[in-house]
Give the backbone structure.
Amino acid sequence: MTTENRTNEKTDLLSMFPCEVEDFCRGIGEPRFRAGQIFKWMHAGEEFDGMSNLSKALREKLKEKAVLYYPKIAEKFVSQKDGTVKYLWELYDGQNVESVFMRYHHGNTICISTQAGCRMGCAFCASTLGGRVRNLLPAEMLGQVIMAQRDMGERISGIVLMGIGEPLDNYDNVMRFLRLVNDPAGLNIGYRHISLSTCGLVDGIDRLADEGLPITLSVSLHAPTDALRSEIMPVNNKWNVEQLLRASVRYFEKTGRRISFEYTLIAGKNDTREGAALLVSAMKQYIGRKMPIHINLIPVNPIKERDFEASEKESIRRFAEYLEKNGMTATVRRTLGPDINASCGQLRNKENQSRMGT
Ligand code: SAH
């Protein structure tokens, strides 16, 4: 578990599995059943003082030995259009990250952040502008789900790791978070209701395939050729389109889980008829019939620091139609919460800039 930048030597109890909480209890001379009580309270977002079935003495002991890294709500925005809620969190060291709570007909889903900032450098993305400050602890990822659920008073049944950060660049903490959030004694969110999105860290994809977690993998492809992909996504210089698509096939073959390819449409750059044809040919060449291909088209959300423009509705429709004609399925992502800067990274930047007086 990452311990960088911790403020003190207290035990990060919220990042622990039930058996580890038991060990901790044993270590402070408490019976095992206390661990179950504490675990339940923590996963409901309670502070030590509010754990009412523990003695006052035990609560004091816990405060002295352990710390709960829940994120605190710094700001909250509710979309007047569709009820989407965006949280700006403050972490223990003053860092800010974001989550977005979304309502779907199949249940409530939250999009969470995995790092404070990001070092992947994608040209169109707001989260990477200030680089990566640090990895989030498992407790801080879990805390986003717990605290949003507590604040909303509604169960969250799905999670997408598509907020600030590259989840496979914080691999161990993310794996621990996934197992914690799936724990039946905690939030008990099914792996099939969890999606992890990556910009294409091939070593991480191969590792993930061996974990045996039936989560959904989203691959941020965004460009059909190495020339264009390297221009907008520096990660392509390390693992190119061919390596990424071949890793995706390996992932599917090992896990049996379909992959969703994310393709952000940028006007005049990758949304042309030629772009669609190149995408189809890359998919045919490196994937062929080895797995079903699903492309999720996302009109780029323009950020003020970069001059990318979203594609016209008509070019998106034509792009999707071309893919469908060539045997793939394509969906166009619905934009939720357009009135509250709902795509991630935008609020964090605003907050950082206003602190720096810019
Ligand atoms: N690092 C991971 C997850 C976070 S980004 C990844 O790259 O997949 C989540 C998704 O939003 C990615 O597909 C990313 O490419 C996309 N994205 C980032 N900035 C965007 C923007 N301005 N408009 C549209 N999509 C964007």
Notes: The CA atoms of residues 175 and 211 lie 9 Å apart. The two ends are 35 Å apart (CA to CA). The chain has a mean pLDDT of 93. The pocket of S-adenosyl-L-homocysteine is lined by residues 122, 124-125, 162, 166, 197-199, 220, 262, 264, 298, 300-301, 303, 343 (CB under 6 Å).
